[in-house]
Structures are given as C-alpha cells and as structure tokens.
Amino acid sequence: MNKFSKSTLWFLGSAVAVYLVIQILVSTEILSQFWNTIIRLGAVMAIVSIGLNLIYGFNGQFSLGQWGFYAIGAYAAADVTYRWSVNNSADGVVVLALATTLSGVAILWLHKRLSKVRGLDPLSAFTLYLTSTILLSVLAVRVGVAITPAVTSVLSMLPAAISMQIVFILAVIFSAILAAEISYLFGLPILSLGSDYFGIATLGFTIIVKILLDNSDTLLGFVEMKGARGMVGIPKVTSLFWVFIFLVMVVTFIRNLLRSSYGRAIISVREDEIAAKAMGIDIAEYKIVAFVIGSFLAGLAGALYAHINGFLHPDTFNFIKSFDPMIIVVFGGLGSITGTIFAAFAWALILEGVLRLFLPQGFETWRFVVYPLLLIITMLLRPAGIFGNYEIPFLRQVLPKIRQPKPVEAEKAVEVKS
C-alpha cells in the first residue's frame, strides 16, 4: 500500500487546519459575514486564476478569454439552481446534463475519427463539431422535457436542503463541463494563431459573451436572467466548506497533471514549440488540452461565484474585469501555483476588503489606483512575480535521484574500458 509523502500530509493537514480556524472564527462571529464573503471570493479567484496559469504560465498561450468562460459557468449554474428553487423544476439540471453529456461524447467520437483524416483544416473540423453539438443540444432539450417530471419527483422526495445541495453540485459540475466544451469548439479555429493574435481573439470572445448576457432575456430566451438588469433570486449555497473542497481538489489535480507526461508535454510547448515538435509532441493537441482544462476551471469558479451573493450582472463580466486573473497570475508569478493562490487571496482581502473599508468615504474607487501602483512596483522590483517559480513542497516537482553505480558495477565498468 502506497503511503502519503510528508509534503502531502503537511499540505492536507495545513489546509484542514486553516479551514477549521476560519470556520470557527466565522461561527463565533469574530469574522463578520463581510470577511466570510471576501475569503470565499478569494478562493474563487484562486481557482479561475490557476486555470489561466495553466494556459499562460505553463503552456505559454496568452489568453484573455478566461473571464468569458467564468461568466458562462456562473450564468449556467445560476439558471439551474434558480429553476429548482423558484420553479421547483429540475428541467435546468436535466437539460444541461443531457446536453453536455451528449455533446461531450460527440466531441470525443469526432476527435477520434477526424484525427485519422489527413489535411483536414481547422475550420472544416470546427463546422463538423459545431453542427453535431447544436443538433445534440436540440435533442437534449426535447428528451429533457420528457424526463424532467420524473427527475423532479425523485428530488422532491428528499429533504429540501439535501435536494438543493444535489442540484447545486450537479449545476457546478455540468456548468464547468459546458465551459470546457465551448472552449474546445472556440479553440479549434484560433489556437493556430500566434500568441498575441490568440489573446486578441479570446478578448473578443469575452466581449461577445458579455453582449449575449446583456440580451439573455430577449435574444437567448432566458427570461429569468433579466438581461442587462441583472439576475436575482439565485440561492446562496456556496459555503466556505464548498470553496475549500473545490480549491483543494483543483490544486491537487493541477499538481498531479503537471507531474504527469501530459503536464511535461504542456510545459515543453511553452519552452520551445519547435523542439517539442521534433520530439514527437503534438503541439496543437496539448494547446487545446491546456486551454480546455483552464476553461473548465474558469467555469467551475464562475458557478461557485454565482451562489455567493445570489446576484449576477453582465457588467461583472466585462472585458476590463477580464484582466483580473491575468494580473493575479503575473503578480503571483507565472508558472507558480503557490504564487497564484497567494495573489488571489491578496487581491480579495486588499482590493475588495481592506481598501474598501478603510479608505475615506467617497474614495472607494481609489482602490483601483492603489492596486495598479502595487503591481507596477512589484514588476519593477521583482519582474518574475512575488513567488517567481517557487512552490511549496507539495507542489514542487521532485526529480528522481541520480542512480549511483554500486562498487561491483563500477569495477566491471573499469574492466570493460581497459
């Protein structure tokens, strides 16, 4: 039986200890609900920024689309839980689960078949993927309408608190999958672009998502989202426990991914695409893998964010805010998960907490001046970010020890040479 390493035990023990301390402080009201919300926002920003760090810091793809996938996850999950809590209907979770499952199966099946076709250009492949996804989504809606009453009755048999938690978890997971599938479709035609052009294209995607959210009640038909007026009535079910669990799971997943052969291939693309290609690594394949996983984490973070304050507005997801994860990643250190987590919590505690509370009344917006100044000073004094490439022992890549030849083997080697 494999034993946990000391670094793993220290990480898990420290994480549980931090959670217990914060939970006790909140339960005893030493920490107010305001600071409870700030801490949860910090954890959410850590998740979305870790996803961007995978895309930009480890894979080398300059992306400004993380906020768009964050918005997709937020609104998709909010719509599911809203329909359950207000309409007492499971149609949202049923349709979303069916649509993402069928589309995911279709994407995997087409990827396996189209990878064997030589000379297929990205736009043609994108058309095939998009057509199949749209057709299966329409099928999911029709099938979902038929089976929704049965699913609703089953969930209604459970206590209200338990059924709400089940719907919430399903909404978070399938909203993240939805964001990942959209990122796969979006990434097919644009990942072949250079880094700067890729960044501009992803910024355009964020703007498109924001415009669609402004008109979600009229153009998309989701009346409950209320378009530019903002969506209200979202259940506030993102507790400290859930953000803690998801953050630990994300950190562990990224750590294991980067230590795997996939992770080493992802990093090799950042270091030198030509050398990676010469070693037989499929550059396009690993770019899309990093992009999809990073977008999945953005959708996951967005789904958690939607259920913190119980309110969503499209202005929260405008292109100016899309720079927040990028600033956090650069501030903490490109390629440093430890730095990203630290910078995300510092962003929440200082920008949204300390500066909002302690600046004189009427000067709250000056926090947006203080924050860039701190960033400029950091870039001048420490261009690699606060943590640079440093990682805590749990996240640090441990290289195997160099095997020293035994005395007998050394003597044999000398005899062979002589």
Helix and strand topology:
Layout: H1 6-27, H2 33-58, H3 66-87, H4 91-114, H5 122-156, H6 160-190, H7 195-214, H8 240-259, H9 261-271, H10 273-278, H11 283-309, H12 323-332, H13 337-358, H14 367-381, H15 407-417
Key features of this structure:
mainly alpha, 2 domains
Number of strands: 0
Overall structural class, as computed from helix and strand content, comes to mainly alpha
What percent of residues adopt helix (DSSP H or I)?
Answer: over 70%
Overall average pLDDT: 87
H and E order: HHHHHHHHHHHHHHH
Domain count, please report it.
2
Distance linking N and C termini = 45 Å
Unreliable segments of 5+ consecutive residues: none
Form type: globular
**Sheet with most strands:** none
Percent of residues in β-strands: under 5%
Number of helices: 15
Question: Rg to the nearest angstrom?
Answer: 23 Å
Task: Explain how this protein is built.
- With 418 residues, this protein is mostly helical.
- The chain has 2 domains: 1-31; 32-417, no CATH class.
- 72% of the residues lie in helices and 0% in strands.
- It has helices spanning 6-27, 33-58, 66-87, 91-114, 122-156, 160-190, 195-214, 240-259, 261-271, 273-278, 283-309, 323-332, 337-358, 367-381, 407-417.
- Helix 2 (33-58) packs parallel to helix 8 and helix 12 packs across helix 13 (337-358).
- The model has no long low-confidence stretch (mean pLDDT 87).
